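Exercise 7. Predict the joint structure of the components listed below.
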Amino acid sequence: MRLVRQVLTIAAKDLRAELRTKEAINASLAFALVILLMFSFAFDPEADTTREISGGLLWIVFAFAGTLILNRSFAREIPNDCLDALISAPIPGAALFLGKAIANFLMVLAVELVSLPIFGIFYNVHWAQQPAQLFGVLVLATWGLTVIGTIFSALTVNIRLREVMLPMLTYPILVPALMGAMRLTAVLVLGKPIAGDDLSWLKMLIGFDVMYTAASLVLIETVLVS
Amino acid sequence: MRDKIVYVLGCIALAILAWNTYTIAFLPEETRQGVVFKIIFYHVPVALTAMCCSMVALVASVLFLITKRFIFDALAVAVTEVGLAFLAANLVTGSIWGRQIWGIWWTWDARLTSALVCWLLYAGYLMLRKAIEEPTQRATFAAVFSIFAFMDVPIVIFSIKWWRTQHPAPVFWSGGSFPPDWTRHFLWNMLAMVLLGVVMTTVRFGQEQVQREIDSLRREAHAL
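Solution:
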């Protein structure tokens, strides 16, 4: 119970700080819009083709835009030595990690929920044929993205070339999750049910989330202490 | 003394490889694939050696996190570098085979993709090390990253079963028909590759130890 309260305190703190400055979320949204614009030059948008490749396009946008938020997660604590204060605070590292991960998750999800209808409008795609299932896939894959992003944000916060290192380390690890998310999103946008082969992608996505959340919770203390 | 043993082992590995290559050249060609099939004598042993390397890297990383002894960190970086080279050899030989049999150098099949992802992960590991100055922090963060990277390896191994794939089913474990005397050649190559991996790792491990000694001497000199 105490852990839950600590987690929520950290998450609320991060969300409050972000809502006051809005620096990461604004940058992320603007970046998502720019990438959506770039797609229109990369290929000639026709409704059918776009729907088929929508999963890939959307997750490229989400992964790129999400990194901007994740990069700020621990970097935000560098000024005024806030990170040292957080680490020496009487809360376990797992609570700090989970709190930050939840705050990041909500912010990335918010960016995704704004970019999704914009994508639909720009490229004339009826994406909301199975909204509940699509939301489920978004939640699962975004949690995977945030868990990996948050722990690597902690890992890279103090090193040289932080902004470059984070995407370089996270994307290869995220590949299985992104592949699953792209495939499932495309299927749902096309209006097909998740069945057969796609079910194993769903299982893989869940497995990915569970595996890496567990590993992060075990290792975060080691990362924070050094 | 240790150096001499290492170099002798290296020579033995190279001799086995050379002799085996000579005898493999005289084996009859495979009925359907022809001479390019023989690449399997190299493709699979380097893959297995790379896998062994990543396992040793995992064990060394975990041991470093538990004991905080830098000897394990040196072992982890040495074995990761060697494993990366073997995995590169695996990707290149696979690509050459693919060009002959499939007509293309590369295809985004699950297994090929996963192998490439693994390669990128371990390359990221080496880059992460380069970006951190402080030795304890470098060793700890690298060890954590190595554990995360290793969790990707099972996906490589099982992806052939999980996902649709064009990669041929394993010849050795799923009832493939590999002639017994060919298996002997294969096993000799396997031994040679592992031996070569051990020799390269030992040499690199020694360099890493010397580097650490130089660094500590330099710090001492600065302090004086």
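Discussion. The two ends of chain B are 34 Å apart (CA to CA).
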